[in-house]
Amino acid sequence: MNLKTSAWLVAMLFISDGVHDVYADESGPAGVEFFEKQIRPILVEHCRSCHGEKKQEGGLRLTAHEEILKGGDTGPAIVPGEPDDSLLIRAVGYLDEPKMPPKQKLPDADIEKLRQWVAMGAPWPESEAPSASDREKKSKGFAVTAEQQSWWAWQPVRDSTPPIARNIEWPQNKIDNFILAELESRGLRSAGPAERAVWLRRATFDLTGLPPTPEQLDAFIADVSDVAHDRVVDRLLESPAYGQRWARHWLDVVRYADYHDGDPKARNPVCEPLEAWRYRDWVVESLNRDLPFDQFITHQIAGDLLSSPDGTEPYADGLIATTFLVNGAWDRGDADKEKLVSDMVDDQIDTVGKAFLGLTLGCARCHDHKFDPISHEDYYALAGIFYSTRMLQELGTKGGEITLQRRPLVPNDVVERRNQQVMQIETLNLQMAELDKLSPKPADDDPRRKEIIERRDQLQKSLPPEIPMALAVSEGGVPGGLFPGIQDVPIHVRGSYARLETVVSRRMPAFFQGEDTGSIAGGSGRRELAAWVTSQQNPLTSRVIVNRVWQWHFGAGLVTTPDNFGLLSEPPSHPALLDWLTVRFVEDGWSLKKLHRRIMLSAAYRQSSVVKREQFDRDPENRWLGRFSSRRLEAEAVRDAILSVSGQLDTALGGPAQADVAITRRSLYVQTARWDRSNFATLFDAANPDSSVEARTVSTVAPQALFLLNSGFLLDQAKHLADRLVHDVPTDSPKAETARIQRAYRLLFCRLPSDEELDLTREVISHGNSSGTNAGWVDLAHVLLCSNEFVYPD
Amino acid sequence: MNDFTSLNRRELLARSGCGFGLLSLAGMLAADETEHGSNPYAIRPPHHEPRAKRVIFLYMPGGPSHVDLLDPKPRLATDNGKPLPFEKPKLQRTTTGNLLASPWRFTRHGESGIEVSELLPGLASCIDDVCVIRSMVADNINHTGAALQMCTGEQAFSRPSMGSWLTYGLGTENQNLPGFVVVSPAAVFQGAQLWASSFLPSAFQGTLVRDPNNPIANLGDPASSLDHQRSKLDALRRLNEIHQHERAANSQLDARIASFELAFRMQRESPEAFDISRESETTQKLYGTDNPETELFGKQCLMARRLLERGVRFVQLFDAPANNAWDQHSGLRENLPKRCRAVDQPITALLTDLKMRGLLDDTLILWGGEFGRTPTAEGNNGREHHPFGFSMWMAGGGIRGGMVHGATDEFGWHSVHNKVHVHDLHATILHQMGLDHERLTYRFGGRDYRLTDVHGNVVKEIIM
Nearest residue of B to residue A399 by CA position? Predict the structure, then answer.
C-alpha cells in the first residue's frame, strides 16, 4: 500500500457522516474516489455513447480531463469550481440548449453529484493517459510490484537442514526441530506428551472420523514396542474409513454437493448432478490407494484426456474425476445463457485457483487483481481454456433448464449394442400391440405371437446392464454459447460478456507460468494447465496441499488461509518447516499417506492439549504449537461417532447419497443438497457447497443442543447404546452396574470413569424414567452422548 | 479452523474490513464480555442511530405485476393491443406480444392520494403509511438469479442473505429465539440459498419454518417431561464441569454448556412465541385466519408479529402455498386476484396491528418479489418476467409514508426517474437499521465482502 492510499484510509477512518467531511481534501484521493464512484458511472452510462472514443457529437469528448476542459464546439464543458458557469451543468440541468442527455433528463441526484463534482474542482485520476485507448492503457497499467515480486509464496520451495534444538529429548522426528526452535526462541515450552489413550483417540478420529474401540485401545496400551505409534498410524491409513474421512475434507475444498434440490421427488434429472456421487467415491478410493496427489489433480482438470493405465477405453476414473469441473452451483441455469456460461467458467477458474494453487484467480474477472500479480488479461487467457471445454450437453431454451453433460463409462460398442437392443425390443412391443389390435385377436399360442415373445426374451436376456454415466467434460466448448469450439476468447470488460475487447491467447498466468511451461499445442489447454499446476517448478501446488493437510491435522494451517497464499494472507508461522515438508512430500512422490505419517508421528502431534491458563495465555491461538489444540468434531464425525458407539454404524463404501439422516450409513452418504440447509450437517457447520471452503467455522448454538436433546435420531441411538451396554455386561448386580458404566466410558471416551463420575452416573441411572426398558441406561447413554468430552477429543 | 465461540472476537476483528469496522468492533468486544464471551447472537451496537430495530420482508415469489397493482399506466389502456413503440431490451426470456391494459381499476386513496389497484383495498386503506417505490431495477430475468439478487445482492454465486448480514451486524434482542426466521410453507426456487449465511458463520442463517403448526425442529421430546429432562441436564452439566475443570482455558467448552441451558429455555419459551392460538379471537380474525383464502398468510403474518414483538431481528415471509405463486405467465385475470385476496387482509392487519402496538415506528416492512411483469402480454392472459422497472413498497422504520418514489416510463417498461436498484434498496435497509452498508464487511477468500458488493446508494428521499 503506498503512502497516498494509506493516508486516504486513515482519513476515511475518522470521517463522520456527510459528503463534505469525506471529500474535504477535494483534489486528493478522496476527490478521485468521488469521481470514480459517483461521476464516472454517470458519464459512462449517459454520455459516452455520443461523447466517447468512437463518436464526438458537437466535437465534445468526455473521456479525459483535458478533453472536458477543452470542451467541444461551444467551448469548455466545465469551469472547475464554478458549476453555474459550466456548460455541462447547465445542459444536464435542462437550463440551456442543448439539453443533455436529449432523450431523458438525468435523475436529480445525478445532476446534484455532477454539480458537486465541478464545485470540488472536477477531480480526475492523474494516471489516466488522455487519449490512449483503453486497451493500451490496460496493458501498460498492469505491472508487477517489487513487493509482489518478492512475496514468499511465489519463491521456489527451499530445502533446509532442520535447526538444532536445545532439548534433544523431545523431538520424535525432524518436524519437531522446527517447532522446538521456534518455541525456544520465544521462551515457550511444550505442554508435554498426551496420555497414550488420548493420542489414540485423537489419531483415530483424525484419520478415520471414528472413535477407537476398547479393543483397539487395549492392544495399543499393551504394545510396548518403539513402533507402537507407527503401527497404529499404518493400521488407520490402511482402513477404508481413512478415505471416507479425508474425502470429506477434499469435498469441502471443491464445493461438492450431491444434489441441488433436497427433495428426491422434485429433482429435475437434466440439471441435477445425479451422478456426482461417482466423483465422491473416486475421491475416497483415490485416497485409500494413495494416488499421488499430482495425478489426483491432473485427473480432476484433464482426466477425460488421459488414457487408462490398463489400456481399456473409456478411462472411467478419468471421466469421473472431471465432475470436479462441473459440479458447481448453477442450479437450473439462467435465462441469460451467455452469462451462465461465463459464470461457469468463472467458477472453474475460481475453484482451480483456490483449491490447487492458493490463488484467488477469480478476483481478476472484472479488473486486474488488486493485490496479487494476476492481470485481467491473465484471467481471460485462462478463461479461454474453460470456454473451450464442454461441460453442458445443452444450454437449453431461453428460460429453460440446462442439461449437464453425461458420458458413458463403458465402451461405445456396448452403448450402441444396448441402444440397438432396446430399440429392437420396442419394435417387437409395437408388433405385439399390432397383433392385439387385429380382430379376431390372435390366440396366445399363435405362432406369430410366440415368435415375438421368443425374440424379445432373447434380447432381454442379452441386454447389457443400464449404462453407467458420469458427469464429465469433453473438449470443445458449449454448443450454442458465445464461444463454442476450441478458441481464444476476448477480455470481458468489467467481466461482462456483452462488452468484449481484445482476444487473448490461451496461456497460464504470465507472472506464474515459469520458463518450462510449454505453449498450448492443440485442444482446450486443460492438459497443459494440469501439467503447469502439478509441475515441480510450480511452488504453489505442493505447498498448498501440504499446508491443507497440516491444517486438517492440527486445526490451523501454517498459513492460516489455505485457499489464499496471496498478499492479503498472513505469511506462514513456520516457513522453513512448510518448505521442508513440501520438499519431502514431492520426494515421496506426492504421497499423502507418507505426509500423514510424518506429521502424526511427530512429538508436536503427540502433545497434550490440556495446559494451565498462564501457558495458554502466552499463545492463545497456539500459533507456535506448544500444545495440541482441542477442537470439536465436525458434523459428520459427530454423527458417525454416535452411530459407532451405539453399535449401529454401517461402514459400507460408496453409492448415491440418501436424504434421511436416520440411516445408519456414514454421514458421507447422507446427502448434501444446495437448496436445503435445514439439515443435521449444516446445523453443525458443514461446508457451504456453493464455493470452495478452506476451513469450517465452529459455531455453538442452541439448535445444536436441541437436536442432541430431542431429535428422534439421538433418542434412538441412546436406546441402542443402552441396549449395547446391557448386552455387553449382562448380569444385574452392583458390580455389573460399575462395569457397564466403565464400558460406556471406554466406548465413548477411551478411559475409565473417576469415582466422582461413577457416583454421578449411578444417580442418573437411578433417576431413569421408569416407563421404558433400561430407562436409566437410556438416560445415561443420552447424557454421555451430549457431553463435551464426547465431541471435544483432547 | 475458524471458531465462532471463544475466538469469535479475534476472528471477527480479523475479518471485519480494514479498520472501517472499528466502532462496531469495539462494541462487539463490550457485548461479548457481558454475554458469556461466546455468543454470536449477542447484541452489537450499530454504526449510527438506527431508525428501525427489526425488519419484516413480505416476499411474493414469482414476481408481482407492478402495472396491475401499484403502478397505474393509462397508456396501456389507450394503446392496448398495440406494439411497444420502442425496442425491447436484448435480455428477454421469451418474446412477449403487444401491450396489455390492466384489467383492474386504480383509484386514489388517503390524504396522499396515491393510486392503488382495486385488487389491494386493504393496502389502499393504509397507503398514507406506505412508501411506494415505482422505479425498482434488478439485473436478472430468471426467478433463481433474480430472487438470489433480491435476497443476497448477488445473482449467480452464494452470498450471505440480508437477514444474515443484519444478525451478523447487530446480533438479536431475544436470546431465547432465533434472530432470523423464515416462514415458507412450500419450497421456493433456490430454497435455502435465499436465507443462507453462506460464508458467514452458520449461526447467522435463517431458521426455516415450513409448517406454521410445527415451527421449530427438535423442540420437545414428547416422551420426556421437562422435569425429567432438567435432571438429565443437571447431570450433564456436572459431568461437563468435571471435564472442564482441567481445561479451564478452553472457553468453547463453556459456550457449549451454555448452549444446552439456552436450548432448555428456548424449549420452554419459544413454543409460546410461535403459538398464534394465544391471540384473541378478534386479532385472529383481523388477520383472516378464519377464512380459508387468507388463513395461511394470515397465520404467517400473525406469527411474524409475535416474533417481531419478542425481539427477532429479521423475519422473511414467503407467500408460498406452492412454488412461484406470483408467476402469472398465464391465468393473470384469475390468479392475480386470488393471490391478492390471500395476502391483502393479512398484510393490512399486520400494518394496523403493529401501528396500534406502537411497533410500526421501529419495524421496517418491505413488500415485493424478485421483479415485476411485462406491460406486454404473454399469450392473451399473462405477463412475462420484468426486472427493468417494477414496484415494491416499504413502511414503518423511519420510512416516509404516503409517498411515491421514482417512476417508470408511460408504459411501465423502464424505470426512468430516481431509479432504485436492488443494491440501493439493501443499502437503505441497512441504513435504517443503523448500519453503513460500506462498513458492514466480512473477510472471505482474500477480500472483504458486503451485502451491496461495490454498489449501493442509500435512497435518502424516502427516509424521514
Answer: B93
